[in-house]
Structure formats: C-alpha cells, structure tokens
Amino acid sequence: MKRKSLITVFWLSFFVGISTFVFFTEEKTAEALFLNIGVAALYCITLSMGNSWINAQLSKKFSWVEQTRTRTILGIIATILLNTFLVLLCNYINLILIQKQDFRGFFSGNMGFINWFGINIALIISLFLHAKNFMEEWKKSTRKEVVEQKLIATSANAQFESLKNQLDPHFLFNSLNVLSSLIDENPAQAQHFTASMSKIYRYILEQKDKELVTVEEEIDFAKTYCELLKTRFEDSVNFEFKVNDEDLKFFVVPLSLQLLLENCIKHNYATSQKPLNIIIYSENGFLFVENNLQAREQVKESAGIGLSNIVQRYALLTKQNVFIEKSAVFFRVKIPMLTQKHPAMITKNTPESLAYENATKRVKELKSFYGNLTSYCLVIPFLVFVNLWTSPQNQWFWWPMLGWGIGLASHALRVFGIGKNWEEKQIQRILDRENNKK
Predict the structure, then answer these.
(1) Helix or strand or coil: residue 264?
(2) What single-letter DSSP state applies at residue 322?
(3) Cβ atoms within 10 A of the Cβ of 272, count?
(4) pTM
(5) pLDDT tens across 169-208, in order?
(6) Which domains does the chain have, with CATH numbers?
C-alpha cells in the first residue's frame, strides 16, 4: 500500500474506534477506548491490505482494459473468498480470543449474524476499491488514446502542409521553363501562355488551403492546363476527357491532375508523327490518367514531387490507395474519388479512432453495471438488517433480493456475455463470411 493509503487507513481506524466506543460501548474507560481503536485497526488494516494485495496481483496479470471480462470474473471470485476468510479471521480474534466467547457458537446465533454482516460490509468496501482501480485504469487508457490521437492528427497535419507547400515552387519552376522556351520560339504564343499561366496560378492560390476539391473543379482546371500544354506542343499531344457527370460531385486532392499530366509529358516523348495521347476518365470510384507509353531513353533524375506527392497526400486522408499500372503499351495512374470533403470525416473510421470510440462506449456500459451492483450491495443488506431487526418471523427481504438479483444478472449478461456485443460480433462474422465468398 502507498503511504497516503496507509495514513487514510489509520485515520479510519481511529474514527471507527472512537465511534464504537461512544455509541456501542457501555464501559467508558481508557482501556475500553484503546481496545475499540485496536479492534477497529485490526479490521481496517487487515481488510484494506488484503484487498489492495489481491487487487495488485490481479492487475499485474490481467488488464482492466484488454481483459475486462476475465479481470472482473476473477476479481469477484477472489474478492469473495479473500474477504470471507479475512472477516472470519478478524472475528475469531475479536470474539473468541479478545472477548473470550464460546467458539461452538461462532457460526450460529449472534456471532453467525456478525460474520454474515461483516462479510457483506467487507464486500461492499472492496467493491468500491476495485471500482476505483477500474476507473483509474480506464482513465489512463482513454487519456493515452487521446494523446495518441492528438499526436497523430498533429503529425498528419504537419506532413500535409509540408506536401502542399511543395506545389507552388514546383509548378512555378516548370511553368517558367516552358515560358522561357516559348519566348524565343513564338512570342505570340508566349504572351497567350502567360495569360493562361496567370489564370492557372490563380487557381493554385485559391486551392492552397484546401485539402480536397471537387472532381468538377479539378477537371476544369486540368482542361485549362491542357490548353496551356497544347499551346506549346500543338499536335504532338492530344487530350481526351471522359469523366461521368455523376462523378463530378466527388472529391480529389487539389492539383493531382496537373501533377499527373505533367508526369506524362516529362517521362514520354511526343512528336507529330507519334503523338502522346492522354485520356482522363472515371470508373468504379477512381479517376484515371492514362497515356500511351513512349518512354524517353534518358530522363534526368526526378525531384520526387509528382507521383510520390499524390500518394503521400492520399495516405494522410484515406485508407484508399493510389494505383500505378504499367505495361508495354500504356502507363496508367488511378486516384480514388472520395465521397466526403473534410479529412476529419474521411479518417474518422481509422482503427485508432474506432478503438477510442469503442473504449468510451465500454466505459459507460461498465460504469452503469458497477453502479447497479453497488446499489444492490448497499440496499439489500440494509433491507435484510431492517427486516431481521424488526420482524424476523416475516422474511420479506427475499422478494427484492431475488427480483433485483435477476435484473442485475441480466445486466451482467448484457455487459459481459450475451447482448449487443454478442449480436454485433455475430453480424460481423456473417459479413466477413460473405465477403470471403466474394
């Protein structure tokens, strides 16, 4: 036991001893006072140290969080056995050794009632100790989950901002390279290119602080960007858009199409005789960018901005993957179209957040059960005491004890055995089985 707990036990022993001396002891002497304090200390220290020890041993081997059912069942069994033994031991020392009563009446009559009543009081106290330990463990667990979620969210946000900040200088650098080549080749086209570039860069600035944009916005931007590329490459590059109208409402990461189109131009050669054909289309929840493969023989080392940037940004927003497919004749990238705009909504079903949500729900269920159990252990012994004290010949206490006991058992089955938890598991098993068939 901790020092603070020991001090609390000693003070409790003192006040219990004083109370029994004042209200229940006829002989008001100093010897009787110290005897009452000593007997109170015997019960308080023995029961508190015993329950603390069994609680610590069980917590070492069985976690309240990960093995709740096992920990609860073993805790109930161990607590009943230990407290029964400790109460009988303390009663034996108090009644037989100190008060010199006849041991033959230890389990019957007045001493039998004292044993029964003492065991119930000890179980109620131990219940509070175990409930306190349970709540402390769950608070630690949920606090740890919250801290982990905050760290994950902070890290993801930092990564996302870092990835987005790569786009501005990257686009500007490539656009200026194109403009530089056009100034010498075709000044008129360079002027048109500058106007288109300003329109495109305005879009980039508008989307700078957005995690996702609609497919419609991205397609409109991509068409403008394709016009810009067409200005430079003329009939060497062809673009085709085949995006379904119903898919325009979905969401993608901003500038994803611009990066993929740029990737096509960068890694493939394009001539009037062998034009580069790029198709953008939607299918089965994905947006495709596909081109005929005309790979350049020598390509300078990539800065790693394009495909890797898209893959990393999607990884921070959703569990859906970006797929890259390559054959002898084509190169294809497909990016998932998301149905929800806010990333917090998209990632709300991650394993971490689901675990936290389930843990919170589980805590509420267990708190409800332990509250019910605590009330039962407090009220029923009181009713038994009142019944036996006032009218022992008419034992009416059995009715509330049995009725409430059945309700408590039903509550325990819902929380620890058959109930919603069991139904959800069965539903999940059926769904898993059906998915495996497919």
Answers:
(1) helix
(2) P
(3) 9
(4) 0.44
(5) 656 666 677 777 777 777 777 777 787 777 777 777 777 6
(6) 1-152 (no CATH), 166-349 (3.30.565.10), 376-438 (no CATH)
